[in-house]
From TrEMBL:
The keyword RNA-binding does not apply. Residues 5-227 form the ABC transporter domain. PROSITE patterns: ABC_TRANSPORTER_1 (PS00211), ABC_TRANSPORTER_2 (PS50893). It is a peripheral membrane protein. This is ABC transporter ATP-binding protein. GO terms for molecular function: ATP binding; ATP hydrolysis activity.
Length: 282
């Protein structure tokens, strides 16, 4: 797989504060990677450096073969950015603004198709200041992808979305055939969308892998719940299939309401961050 985003030794210092302390990760072409981490870990800082909006203190950064700090117009046209809400142009109408912005690109989406993709076709002629928060966020996404970018940055894209808008947005992201770096605090979203998870904490990447790989690192236990003769039971085990087989072997028909809950990305994430904090405190 060709590399679309390549970061190594990335440092960022605000005043006397080292926020990024040697961050390194790669994103392959066409890959969707979720960048996770506690509040203040430096996710937005990292994304803004990759977008070319923020100057780094040190390190090597490459996005689509160029250093974002020196990205020219042609490079910028290949990169899609979804900003934290498009506040300008309040008097413009949705269709008008998307057509206008599309004209800056060589191969933009057709405005009608784009509005349908993000679920804004019913609001095509609404003024932007009249849109609801969620509709405005959909417009932000439309603006980010209007030029069919080869790499797309999504910084907490679904904050404020209702569950249906969120699901529609997830379907949209999965249909996009582009490299995506996404930050989110919604771990179900990360699990659903990302091929790979990268966790930033204490200024470094503390974990990098698929959700399943990270879960294995933690050696998480599954939780098994069942009822037997009307009584509720629960147990934790790493061998849930064997456990359940034994349970049925012993109690057969008396077993009811069986539930097996695997360690979620949330369990894994919390364990990894906790592990990192314990080590850092030593
Ligand atoms: N322009 C700035 N000047 C000084 N400090 C800054 C600046 N921007 C960010 N910081 C600090 O850098 C740290 C990382 O901020 P950043 O916004 O990158 O974190 P984040 O991981 O995106 O957090 P969140 O999950 O809360 O959005 C924070 O401690 C923040 O206060």
């Amino acid at each position: 797989m060709e590399t679309a985003i390549d970061v190594s030794g990335l440092r960022m210092r605000y005043g006397a504060d080292d926020v990024l302390n040697g961050v390194a990760f790669r994103v392959g072409e066409g890959e969707v990677v979720a960048l996770l981490g506690p509040n203040g870990a430096g996710k937005t800082t990292t994304v803004e450096i990759l977008e070319g909006f923020r100057m780094r203190s040190a390190g090597r950064v490459e996005v689509l073969g160029a250093d974002p700090a020196q990205g020219d117009e042609r490079w910028r046209a290949r990169v899609g950015v979804v900003l934290q809400s498009w506040r300008d142009h309040g008097k413009w109408r949705v269709r008008e603004l998307l057509a206008h912005l599309g004209a800056y690109y060589a191969k933009p989406w057709d405005t009608g198709a784009l509005m349908a993709m993000v679920g804004l076709d019913a609001h095509a002629d609404k003024k932007i200041k009249m849109l609801s928060g969620g509709q405005r966020r959909r417009l932000d996404v439309a603006i980010g992808i209007v030029g069919r970018p080869e790499a797309l940055f999504l910084d907490e894209p679904t904050v404020g979305f209702d569950p249906r808008a969120r699901q529609e947005f997830h379907d949209l992201v999965r249909r996009l055939d582009t490299t995506i770096l996404l930050t989110t605090h919604d771990l179900a979203e990360a699990e659903k969308l990302a091929d790979r998870i990268v966790i930033l904490a204490g200024g470094r990447i503390i974990a990098d892998g698929t959700a399943a790989e990270l879960a294995r690192r933690i050696a998480g236990e599954d939780e098994v719940r069942w009822t037997c003769g009307g009584e509720r039971h629960a147990a934790f085990t790493t061998e849930s299939t064997a456990f359940v087989r034994k349970l049925f072997g012993e109690y057969g028909e008396a077993i009811g309401e069986l539930e097996v809950r695997r360690a979620s990305l949330e369990d894994t994430y919390l364990a990894l961050v906790r592990e990192h904090e314990t080590e850092a405190a030593r």
